[in-house]
């Protein structure tokens, strides 16, 4: 967790990007229309999942929290978001499933909220760039 | 073994639209196949009469819509409808109990969603077709000997 928090601070000061589209680029064979479609799906799907994550935590609804975290996991790989954050989502899933280390969940949810918001911002920029060039 | 001699039909079932699309792209770009995608187990079952050659099914199918049937229930209903359709279960969870549960419900195999998931799927599908081919040949010999 600490590594991920430090990562965010570094990112803020160095303007480091949270996303890396290498994997998406490879999967789509650089097909910009497919890349735009995937980005659009991420932008549609992720904010409701983050809202569900936050609401479930507030309601102490551990089943719902587990499910929301679970559903986010593949998107970290697809959008090239750091492995630290995927690990964080896996911990949320595991801790809410076992109802252990519950005190760590608010910080994890906060961190995922931050990283996904930042990723959405970056992906919107990428989407607009694709749109201008296609 | 296949619906036609040219292209097999694959059903891809996942309520994660992003992952489903990435899987569809992988299959479209790397296999000679017909692909149908479904966001729920219910939709998959509604189309089961099309007799797909392989179904790739998400384990956690009711995470977006909690009233939707889950992956295991979908698997059971597929098998009740046609026990010969091979079903491969996909999940983000790398858990032995999940894998065992899937096998007990007659899944052909269980694959964890990761960077190498598609490579594993391709290998498993190849094994499925090879096994079916061998069984078909064996049956032919048994009937004609």
CATH class of chain A: Mainly Alpha
Shape of chain A: elongated
Number of strands of chain A: 0
- Bin the helical content of chain A: over 70%
Biggest beta sheet summary of chain A: none
Which CATH-level-2 architecture of chain A? Up-down Bundle
In round numbers, the mean pLDDT of chain A is 90
Strand order of the largest sheet of chain B: 2-1-3-4-5
Distance between the termini of chain A: 40 Å
Specify the structural class of chain B. Answer: alpha/beta
Structural class category of chain A: mainly alpha
Second CATH tier, the architecture of chain B: 3-Layer(aba) Sandwich
What would CATH call the homologous superfamily of chain B?
Response regulator
According to CATH, what is the topology of chain B?
Answer: Rossmann fold
Describe this structure in words.
The complex is a heterodimer of chains A (134) and B (145). Chain A has 134 residues and is an all-alpha fold. Chain A has a single domain, classed as Four Helix Bundle (Hemerythrin (Met), subunit A) (Up-down Bundle). Chain A contains 6 helices and no strands. Chain A has helices at 2-14, 22-27, 32-59, 62-78, 83-98, 105-133. The longest helix of chain A is centred in the C-terminal third of the chain and has 29 residues, at 105-133. The model of chain A has no long low-confidence stretch (mean pLDDT 90). By secondary structure, chain B is α/β, with parallel strands linked by helices. Chain B has a single domain (9-144), classed as 3-Layer(aba) Sandwich (Rossmann fold). Helix content of chain B is 47%, strand content 17%. Chain B has helices at 17-30, 41-46, 71-81, 96-104, 117-144, and strands spanning 9-13, 34-38, 54-58, 87-91, 109-112. Chain B has a 5-stranded parallel sheet with strand order 2-1-3-4-5, sandwiched between helices. In chain B, strand 3 (54-58), helix 3 (71-81) and strand 4 form a beta-alpha-beta unit. The longest helix of chain B has 28 residues, at 117-144. Chain B is globular. Chain B starts with 8 loop residues before the first strand and ends with a helix. The model of chain B has no long low-confidence stretch (mean pLDDT 91). The A-B interface holds A 23, 27-29, 34, 37-38, 41-42, 44-45, 67-68, 70-71, 73-75, 77-78, 93 and B 15-19, 21-22, 25-26, 29, 60, 63-64, 66, 92-93, 113-115.
């Amino acid at each position: 967790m600490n590594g991920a928090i430090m990562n965010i601070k570094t990112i803020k000061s160095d303007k480091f990007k949270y996303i890396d589209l290498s994997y998406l680029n490879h999967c789509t064979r650089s097909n910009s229309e497919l890349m735009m479609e995937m980005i659009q799906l991420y932008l549609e799907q992720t904010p409701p999942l983050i809202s569900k994550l936050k609401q479930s935590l507030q309601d102490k609804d551990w089943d719902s929290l587990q499910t929301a975290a679970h559903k986010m996991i593949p998107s970290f790989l697809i959008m090239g978001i750091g492995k630290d954050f995927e690990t964080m989502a896996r911990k949320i899933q595991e801790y809410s499933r076992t109802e252990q280390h519950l005190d760590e969940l608010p910080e994890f949810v906060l961190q995922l909220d931050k990283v996904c918001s930042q990723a959405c911002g970056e992906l919107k920029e990428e989407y607009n760039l694709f749109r201008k060039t296609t | 073994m296949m619906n036609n001699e040219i292209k097999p039909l694959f059903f891809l079932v996942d309520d994660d639209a992003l992952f489903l699309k990435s899987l569809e792209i992988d299959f479209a770009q790397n296999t000679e196949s017909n692909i149908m995608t479904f966001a729920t187990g219910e939709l998959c079952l509604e189309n089961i009469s099309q007799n797909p050659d392989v179904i790739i099914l998400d384990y956690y199918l009711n995470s977006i819509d909690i009233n939707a049937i889950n992956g295991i229930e979908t698997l059971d209903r597929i098998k009740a409808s046609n026990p010969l359709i091979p079903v491969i279960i996909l999940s983000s969870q790398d858990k032995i109990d999940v894998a065992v549960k899937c096998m007990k419900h007659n899944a052909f195999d269980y694959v964890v969603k990761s960077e190498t998931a598609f490579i594993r799927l391709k290998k498993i599908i190849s094994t499925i077709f090879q096994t079916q081919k061998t069984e078909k040949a064996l049956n032919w010999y048994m009937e004609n000997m």
